[in-house]
Fold this sequence. Notes:
Elements: H1 7-12, H2 36-56, H3 63-70, H4 74-80, H5 84-106, H6 113-130, H7 133-144, H8 146-169, H9 179-198, H10 212-225
Helix pairs in contact: 2-3, 2-5, 2-7, 5-6, 5-7, 5-8, 6-8, 6-9, 6-10, 7-8, 8-9, 9-10
Amino acid sequence: MSNSPMAASDKHGPLSGPGKGPHPRAGSEAKTPRTERGRRTLRKLLDASAIEFGEKGFHEASVSSITRRAGVALGSFYTYFDSKEALFRALVQDMSENVRASARAAIAPDMPAIAIERAALAAFLRFAREHKEIYRIIDEAEFVDPASYRAHYETVAERITARLAAGSARGEFREGLGEIEAWALMGMNVFVGLRFAVWDDRDEAGAGRRSLEDVAATVNALIARGVMRD
C-alpha cells in the first residue's frame, strides 16, 4: 500500500464512507470533536491507523507514523487520543461499526429472512475485500485489547441472533434458533471472508476471482438446504 498521507482515503475511501465522520462508538475511546474540522481530523487518524496497523501490526506502528500518514500534526493526535492503545481500541470499534453499516445498507425491509443472510454476507465480503486489514487488526485485538476483540464478535453474534429470531417469528426459519446457531453462522462467514475476500490474491483487476455474490449465494444455499441429501 502507498505511504502517502492520504493513502487511507485515496485507495479505499474513508472506512465510514465518503463525507462521513467516525461512527459514534469510536467516540467512546476518542475525545469527541466539537467541530466539523475536528471530526474530519479524527476520521483521518482512524483511516490512517487502519493502514498503519494493518501493514505493521500494533507493536511496530507508531503514533508519529500514523500522524504523518494522516497529514495531521503530531501534537494534534493527543487532542483526540490519550495513547496508541486508545486509538487501537477506537479503530476496532469503528471497523466493527462499519461492518454493521455495510450490512444494514444492503438489507431491505421487505427481504425474506434467508435473503437477508445472503445480502449481509455479500456486504461483509465486499467490505473485507476492500479493507483486508480488518482481519489482521481484529485478530491482533485478541492480544492487544481482549475486551475489544470479544465485544466485536459478541456484537456481531447478537445481530445475527436477532435476525434469526425475526425470521422465526415470521415463520420463515424454524423455531428454536438462537445463540449457538448465530455463532456457527458467524464463524462460517469469517472464514469464508478470509479465503475469498482476503486470500483471493489473484489479478488486481479481478480476473480469475470468484464473484463475491456467487460465494454468498453458495453459503446461503448451505444455510437453506444443509448438506444432507433429500
